[in-house]
Amino acid sequence: AQKVTQAQTEISVVEKEDVTLDCVYETRDTTYYLFWYKQPPSGELVFLIRRNSFDEQNEISGRYSWNFQKSTSSFNFTITASQVVDSAVYFCALSSGGTGTASKLTFGTGTRLQVTL
Amino acid sequence: DTGVSQNPRHKITKRGQNVTFRCDPISEHNRLYWYRQTLGQGPEFLTYFQNEAQLEKSRLLSDRFSAERPKGSFSTLEIQRTEQGDSAMYLCASSDTGGHSPLHFGNGTRLTVT
Asked: How does strand A88-96 pair with strand B5-7?
């Protein structure tokens, strides 16, 4: 069975603060992929990043960075110098199985981020 | 790339009625997925197609639900004899056939069963 836990239901920060969204996952598969999606108020889920279980290198993309640690089964997401446009619900998701497997994602319950001026 | 398109955006129906939703995926994507999202929860996988073949269905998909993807292009999701518990956002997504490819989601169809 797979499970994704996002313990933070809602986070409020003031613009320009850094914020970290936590994600803990469970899977018995050795091959798996982790994803982060953003769901702004408009409702459409937007893909942010995908990492596979064999690559623990952290990744940075502009103000976004991701920290993947297999030892703690965590895949945390940090936004540096947050902006009002970052306000959204962020979902962590897991897809496991062989390398040709379709993306049947197991999502966490999401973290609502509110960035205010 | 015009994105994934879903129609209608909103549907209000009375309990016991049948409803049908449509999804048009990104044209070059062979895989098409249906997910359901209820308030305060993450999306839950329902089913997926590779071309016209429905390859997997979740246990969440009761006998009242049926999905089709004729000719491997657009897809429809039908719910028969709707129940109040079916009220949710129904999301369609598409991807290429690479393993664990990122999903591109549509805006969803919000169903309200009264």
From this structure: unpaired
pLDDT in tens, chain A (117 residues): 899 999 999 999 999 999 999 999 999 998 899 999 999 988 899 999 999 898 888 888 899 999 999 999 999 999 999 999 999 999 999 998 766 677 789 999 999 999 999
Nearest alpha carbon to residue B54 among B37, B72, B81, B29: B72
Task: Confirm if B55 and B32 have CB atoms less than 8 A apart.
Answer: no
Q: Cβ of B18: how many Cβ atoms within 10 Å?
A: 11
Contact: B40, A104; criterion CB under 8 Å: no
Closest partner residue to B104 (CB to CB) among A42, A47, A108 is: A47
Report the alpha-carbon distance of residue A92 to residue A107 in Å, rounded: 6
- Residue B36 is encoded by which pair of tokens? 């359901």
* Run of H or E including B6: strand B5-7
pLDDT digits (tens, 9 = 90+) for B24-51: 999 999 999 999 999 999 999 999 999 9
Size of interface A-B (CB pairs under 8 A): 69
C-alpha dihedral over B49, B52, B54, B55, to 10 degrees?
Answer: -70
CB within 8 Å: B103 and A47:
yes
Of the candidates A68, A88, A91, A29, which has an alpha carbon nearest to the alpha carbon of residue B103?
Answer: A91
- Rounded to whole angstroms, the Cα distance separating B10 from A108 reads 25
Across the interface, do B43 and A102 touch by the CB < 8 Å criterion?
A: no
